Q: What sequence folds into this?
């Protein structure tokens, strides 16, 4: 076992803020747990968001700059060099490719080992949208990251195979790390209903063309309309912003009188659990995913789920819930499964109990132990 003085980690995020709707807010609790539970000293850097030190949910965050990318990367290199002189030997970069390149270069020069975390089965989308020269550049950057970092970490399990095939990451460099969820913050809420006959549905997503929620939404509206004709009532809350928002709003105009669709915009992640608590059923109509943390949040809140099999979705649910994970290429089947589950209170109760139990393997203390084992191996 390495002594505690060696357990120093630099954690690099593109941006974090207490009012942010992104799921990076979860990182705060994970790093706190890593320090309390495993004895690590963690320096959290945010590439964007200003400069200086700010406190986010009780944790100091060191912001590099609010200016251009070149300056941010230069300041990141300086920060890493300074921290290396203070005994930090590990750097963990989440998602940001430029930060991974800079961290890898600094690490190779100064003897700092670098872990890079990414999870997103979106390479087919990138190839569709990019011109040939841009695709060549992106592939060059990806291979540069793979060669520079010491570990390419991802999750859940099926994403290991995905990155081995798409980015040709050597198996020796691949490591599995889960996303985590606070089962203390996200816990089931049982409240009195103003209308017990109404089924309340929830979508939480960045409404990006990458996810193509718009290919599922017309079927969702149509199937809920059909079910509503028989007297059932549905309330669908959609949380999130993005380029597809206007299109989904247009598609929602076909809703009939017993189907209410609310677009609530972006909700800061520290408040998002309140909206899960008002729902009966969670939907994830998405064509591309990696390790969808929204599903972990929904599971911890005891919500039954209807989702697509995009990315690593099937890896993170139990036996009964897997029956409600639909092929991403079957939008009509997705909507039909949604209506069937909305009308089956017993099935929803069974899924709720299973999800609450199954999500424990992704709880923050469990994932902190995963991080600790992986980090210690690099030391």
A:
């Amino acid at each position: 076992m390495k002594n505690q003085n060696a357990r120093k980690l630099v954690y690099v995020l593109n941006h974090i803020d207490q009012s942010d709707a992104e799921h990076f807010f979860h990182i705060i609790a994970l790093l706190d747990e890593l320090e309390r539970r495993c004895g690590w000293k963690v320096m959290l850097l945010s590439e964007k968001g200003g400069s200086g030190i700010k406190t986010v949910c009780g944790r100091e965050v060191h912001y590099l700059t609010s200016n251009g990318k070149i300056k941010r990367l230069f300041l990141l290199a300086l920060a890493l060099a300074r921290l290396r002189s203070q005994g930090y030997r590990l750097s963990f970069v989440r998602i940001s490719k430029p930060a991974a390149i800079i961290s890898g270069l600094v690490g190779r020069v100064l003897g700092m080992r670098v872990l890079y975390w990414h999870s997103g089965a979106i390479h087919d989308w990138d190839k569709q949208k990019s011109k040939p020269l841009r695709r060549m550049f992106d592939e060059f950057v990806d291979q540069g990251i793979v060669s520079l970092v010491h570990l390419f970490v991802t999750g859940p399990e099926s994403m290991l195979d995905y990155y081995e095939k798409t980015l040709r990451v050597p198996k020796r460099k691949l490591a599995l790390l889960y996303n985590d969820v606070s089962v203390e913050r996200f816990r089931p809420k049982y409240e009195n209903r103003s209308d017990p006959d109404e089924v309340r549905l929830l979508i939480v997503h960045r409404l990006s063309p990458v996810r193509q929620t718009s290919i599922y939404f017309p079927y969702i509206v149509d199937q809920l309309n059909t079910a509503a004709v028989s007297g059932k009532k549905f309330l669908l809350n959609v949380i999130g912003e993005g380029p597809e928002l206007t299109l989904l709003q247009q598609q929602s105009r076909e809703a009939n009188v017993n189907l209410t669709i609310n677009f609530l915009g972006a909700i800061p992640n520290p408040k998002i659990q309140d909206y899960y608590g008002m729902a009966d059923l969670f939907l994830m109509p998405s064509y591309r995913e990696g390790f969808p943390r929204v599903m972990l949040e929904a599971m911890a809140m005891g919500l039954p789920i209807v989702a697509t099999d995009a990315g690593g979705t099937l890896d993170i649910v139990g036996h009964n819930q897997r029956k409600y994970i639909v092929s991403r290429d079957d939008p009509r089947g997705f909507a039909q499964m949604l209506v069937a589950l909305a009308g089956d209170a017993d099935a929803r109760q069974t899924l709720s109990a299973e999800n609450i139990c199954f999500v424990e393997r992704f709880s923050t203390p469990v994932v902190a132990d995963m991080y600790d084992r992986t980090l210690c191996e690099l030391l």
About this structure: The CA atoms of residues 142 and 155 lie 18 Å apart. The radius of gyration is 22 Å. The chain has two domains: 4-180+363-378, 198-361.
